[in-house]
Design goal:
This protein has about 280 residues and is α+β, with helices and mostly antiparallel strands. It is built from nine helices and four strands; from the N terminus they run E-H-E-H-E-E-H-H-H-H-H-H-H. It folds into two domains: about 90 residues, Glutaredoxin (3-Layer(aba) Sandwich), CATH 3.40.30; about 110 residues, Up-down Bundle (Glutathione S-transferase Yfyf (Class Pi), Chain A, domain 2), CATH 1.20.1050.
Amino acid sequence: MSDNQQYIPPQQWHWDQSSGGKFANINRPIAGATHEQALPGGQHPLQLHSLATPNGVKVTILLEELLERGISDAEYDAWLINITEGEQFSSGFVDINPNSKIPALIDNSVSPAVSIFESGAIMVYLAEKFKAFLPEEGAQRAECMSWLFWQMASAPFLGGGFGHFYAYAPEKFEYPINRYAMEVKRQLDVLNIHLSSRQYMCGKQYTIADMAIYSWYGALVEGELYEAAEFLDVTSYEHVVRWAKELNGRRAVKRGRRVNRVWGDESLQVPERHSAADITD
């Protein structure tokens, strides 16, 4: 469809499998499994099934931070779910996440085992389980939860909105790119103003809110999302850039970003992780 052709929605929408776009082969308007395939299992109580997208990286950063803190019970197996191949629609994965989105976690340290999906829910579960990186009560906890849920609510505008129309859609159109670029820049400004007077999202305390927001917006200002750094003028958000640089300097963040990664520099790829030795610093 060219720019001068107006789209008129039909009275009832029907699925056009040839609609195009980078992920057209896996996008579909129905839920459920497409094929039978059991999930693998490893030796550790925590079994993560994921991919190193921003949503997946949130959880692996937290797990590596817990281990860095000396919490050995946070040892985990990380299994690759290749979403470009439709592995999120296997019967085994749908059993633990009916929404078919990464990441998903199984905790076998309790009986019966607990399955958790949605990255924010997994982060809260792990932080509460190990009593780390989440204030336990009061105003500090409320602030941390507010910023965590801010990220969960805001990132779809960055990924599914801006990222889709700027980088993945089969054609580029001015209106959706402008609409979502405006919103992403507003979000960056929210962060920039907030971080102008704070070291971390919740003041001097490093929390799961930082990890979650960094995985999306830190990567963005570091020029690692959608090749859009210049377009969005990300370097102008100096306080976000400062904060992102500090987080990226953390050993656990560097390690967590590599888990379930299957693209880019081969030396940084760790498709599966089953022990600390799988990641070479």
